[in-house]
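@channel sequence for tomorrow's demo:
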Amino acid sequence: MMNYILDIETVQTAGAGVKPRSDVDAVLEKNGWKRKNLYDLAKKAPFRQLQMLAVLLWMQFCLKKTDVVFIQWKITLLKPFSSFAFEKAGSCRKIMFIHDIDSLRREEPVFCEKERFNRCDAVVAHTKAMKEWLEEHGVSRKIFVLGIFDYLTEYMPDYKQRVHRQTGKAYEVVFAGNLSRQKSGFLYQPFKPVHYSLVLYGPDYAGDTGCGKIYKGVLKPDEMAGGIQGDFGLVWDGSSLDGCSGAYGRYLRYNCPHKMAMYLACGLPVIVWSGSAMAGFVRENQIGICADSVLEIDEMLAGLTAGDYDVLLECVREQQKKVAGGYYTAKMARDIGEYFSVPVNA
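structure tokens (generated this afternoon):
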């Protein structure tokens, strides 16, 4: 049995969109999987089509039934080969790693990805909640659960700078990511933090600074772990301060935002919506605070002692080592290996 990763060759940008894919690739390659590029985004369309045709022919005629191909979804398929997709090519075992389910995220009436997922032998979901949603909506294949994304980095934060905080010093709560009104509309609602400052990193911020909000610009993904300064990382989405609303906000009930792993890689305890899929992970591992509303954060931080914060940091340190070293992706790979040691459809 041979294990392969099927992905696309992407271009590294200042945004964090490429890092989840590249980190999954890196961990699997470290564990003996071989990467195969479906096509290279840097090449012109005719060359990409030829690359994709070559890979489909390779899957059809070169791979054995016992071989495993790990596919990072979503991949944009190129015409005229989009109808003859890689899920249909060859008799090898295929695993679909889900980065996002667009029909769920956009709250579309039709689960258009279901047919594609069911063509594979297995899929990988972010969380248990996402796994249950897939099962309820007709995905009948084996579903593995990742738990949380990894965020590979060699940077290890200096915890001595954060423990034993000075009494009375305001906390700094980091919010990093897409800061546009469409994605993070809650930032533009009228609220003024008292016991903390909200420190913003990312593109498309069009709001005011001051009144407890500090904008620090854009960092590249590989700069995040060493460049972000703060005491907590906030995971929130949507336009409402009272819970996460709208399609983006409600999606948090199912997915694991990549920024969650990024905060842990930075050594930051997290603040998450209590209705999110990651709230259970936060409580179980004692790595942060679960809040019903952004407006609750002030009171919760006001009641947090220096000793309480030190305990959070110690728990975060264990998770920081895991996500920075690729623990969760490697565990998923082991689970896949154990499962495929028996016939897929047995």
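heads up for whoever presents: DSSP finds twelve helices and twelve strands in the chain.
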